[in-house]
């Protein structure tokens, strides 16, 4: 297994054989209209860090190739499997037909504390738009909704930070 630092990732061409050889965890990350390219790129770095199977970019989420996404991802967009789906709900329905358990990270009356639930694999984690969150139809289709506690005056965390916390909780089960 190769391990590249940030400089090497930025300058090393993607080795498709090496990328395919990385053992992937049964995790799919679904971005529901995430608009900030810094968040998108950072989520690619996070997907690489947890060896997620893939990232699904939905709706208005920008896709690679994009210089701002590439910069924030430090070129992990070439190492992480990804696809685009026009509608998040369509992506969720396809995954559910494949037996993937869908977990939305969102503040909602139905949500449970992220660290007090049992995650079932394979799992799809949905995170939403920086302003409006995960769409209602996607929340309704999710198998579970989880949220992070907020004890200060701020109502929420950055989408990538929230996703990172939940993903590392999930990987504790491996």
From TrEMBL:
<keyword id="KW-0808">Transferase</keyword>
<dbReference type="GO" id="GO:0008173">
    <property type="term" value="F:RNA methyltransferase activity"/>
</dbReference>
<feature type="domain" description="tRNA/rRNA methyltransferase SpoU type">
    <location>
        <begin position="27"/>
        <end position="168"/>
    </location>
</feature>
<dbReference type="InterPro" id="IPR029028">
    <property type="entry name" value="Alpha/beta_knot_MTases"/>
</dbReference>
<dbReference type="Pfam" id="PF00588">
    <property type="entry name" value="SpoU_methylase"/>
</dbReference>
<dbReference type="InterPro" id="IPR001537">
    <property type="entry name" value="SpoU_MeTrfase"/>
</dbReference>
<dbReference type="GO" id="GO:0005829">
    <property type="term" value="C:cytosol"/>
</dbReference>
<dbReference type="GO" id="GO:0032259">
    <property type="term" value="P:methylation"/>
</dbReference>
<keyword id="KW-0489">Methyltransferase</keyword>
<dbReference type="GO" id="GO:0006396">
    <property type="term" value="P:RNA processing"/>
</dbReference>
<dbReference type="GO" id="GO:0003723">
    <property type="term" value="F:RNA binding"/>
</dbReference>
<protein>
    <recommendedName>
        <fullName>tRNA/rRNA methyltransferase SpoU type domain-containing protein</fullName>
    </recommendedName>
</protein>
<dbReference type="InterPro" id="IPR004441">
    <property type="entry name" value="rRNA_MeTrfase_TrmH"/>
</dbReference>
<dbReference type="InterPro" id="IPR029026">
    <property type="entry name" value="tRNA_m1G_MTases_N"/>
</dbReference>
């Amino acid at each position: 297994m190769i391990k590249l630092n940030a400089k090497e990732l930025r300058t090393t061409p993607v080795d498709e054989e090496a990328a395919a050889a990385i053992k992937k965890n049964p995790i799919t990350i679904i971005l529901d209209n995430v608009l900030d390219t810094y968040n998108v790129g950072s989520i690619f770095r996070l997907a690489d860090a947890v060896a997620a199977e893939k990232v699904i970019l939905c709706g208005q989420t920008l896709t690679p190739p994009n210089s701002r996404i590439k910069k924030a991802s430090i070129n992990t967009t070439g190492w992480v499997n990804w696809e685009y789906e026009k509608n998040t709900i369509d992506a969720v329905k396809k995954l559910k037909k494949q037996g993937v358990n869908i977990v939305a990270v969102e503040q909602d009356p139905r949500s449970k504390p992220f660290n007090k639930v049992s995650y079932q694999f394979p799992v799809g984690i949905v995170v939403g738009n920086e302003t409006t969150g995960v769409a209602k139809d996607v929340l309704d289709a999710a198998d579970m909704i989880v949220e992070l506690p907020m004890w200060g005056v701020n109502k929420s965390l950055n989408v990538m930070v929230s996703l990172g916390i939940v993903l590392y909780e999930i990987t504790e089960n491996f």
